[in-house]
Amino acid sequence: MPVSIIPFNMPEPAAIPPHIVAALEAMSPDEAVVQGMDLLLGIEAADTIVYERVGQGVVHTAGAGAEVLQRVLEQDDARAFADQDGVGNSALLLVGQASADEKTPLPAGVVRFLLEGAEGGSIGFSYVLPLKASDGQLWGALTLIRRAASGPLNHEQPNLCEGMRRVLSRMLG
Hints:
By secondary structure, the chain is α+β, with helices and mostly antiparallel strands. It has a single domain, classed as Beta-Lactamase. The chain has helices at 18-25, 29-42, 66-75, 108-114, 157-170, and strands at residues 4-8, 48-53, 57-63, 91-95, 97-99, 120-122, 125-132, 138-146. A 6-stranded antiparallel β-sheet has the order 1-4-7-8-2-3, sandwiched between helices. The chain is globular. The chain starts with a strand and ends with a helix. The mean pLDDT is 90.
């Protein structure tokens, strides 16, 4: 299957413990998102996470290979994760097979990163989670990257990711 961008309906959110919500609310929005990324990495929801803001590009990357991916995203003028068609209307799932030199909706450097140095193969499972302000405007996105070996999100992780996405979105005003 070639690289596909599939609208993905997140399940009902898991409740985020009140002390975590209070700690996040005490931070600036960007600090809260970065802390939320660390929490999602802690539950192994992703190997790498990218935080992008509309009009500003990549704000922060975290996890395995974060520095490499940050450089790739800063150098590539092509569309990044949050710029994919359909983001904002729903979460997106990016999956499929690719070769390092083929044209895909993702920037070439990103495909190479997802292939982990291979010339071709599975790009794993990436979930683009929109962060929306209370007026419904897309503010940014978190992209959770899971290598093919990590598999898709397990049965609890989507609920926790959706809970965190909603908490962070509420903070955006």
